Amino acid sequence: MLIPQELVDTDTSAMVNVAKEEPDGLGSLAEEIALAGKFFVPKEQKVADPSQERLLLHATVEELVRHDLALRENADDGRYLVFPSQFNRDYEDAPEPKGKAVALTFNGPVQSLNSTPAVRLGHDGLFTNGRQETWRNAAVFTAKAGGNCGRFLQEFEGG
Questions:
Q1: Which CATH architecture has domain 5-82?
Q2: Residue 88: how many CA atoms within 13 Å on its side-chain side?
Q3: 82-100, pLDDT tens digit by residue?
Q4: Can you list the residues of the chain whose pLDDT is less than 50?
């Protein structure tokens, strides 16, 4: 079955909206909910055939993970799809990072650029990162070889 991109886009948008509205601000959605289609999609945009819908949902989730738009994370209560672009909680009291090794400067909106490294570092197998150690403007990772490292975003006036 060739899956039309507009159907993938519709489900992706609906999943992102659910993650964006999550009360704890971590931008996630239980993978079980995503795969079961237990989220709002307008009736006229839903796939009528349940077996085709199931294929579409699985394909959509795999595309999100493969293209680093979502991070798959195991938790005590199940597996989650985490959308770093939808984090809406900040680490307000984040201290100036000690031992800062690299500092990058960008002009313009950086939130989408900031979320990509969070997903990539979470996928690379060298680090672990829990949901409670991730914010819109910071993340703390534990290196499997030992020690911690982090990312911190500091936005200045005028973008």
A1: Orthogonal Bundle (1.10)
A2: 13
A3: 887 787 777 777 777 677 7
A4: none
The CB-based long-range contact list for 112-116 (8 Å cut-off, 24+ gap) reads: 112/85, 114/84, 114/151, 114/153, 115/84, 115/85, 115/87, 116/68, 116/84
Alpha helices per DSSP H over 99-138: 111-123
- Output the pLDDT for position 111: 64
- Residue 130: helix, strand or coil by DSSP? coil
Q: How far apart are the first and last CA of the chain?
A: 45
User: Angle 8-9-11 (CA atoms, 0-180°, nearest 5)?
Assistant: 65
| Separation of alpha carbons 73 and 85, rounded Å | 15
* Strand, helix or coil for residue 65: helix
- How far, in Å, CA of 79 to CA of 60, rounded? 16
Q: Domain boundaries in the chain?
A: 5-82, 89-152
Cα 84 vs. chain centroid, distance in angstroms? Answer: 3
Is the pTM above the cut of 0.70? no
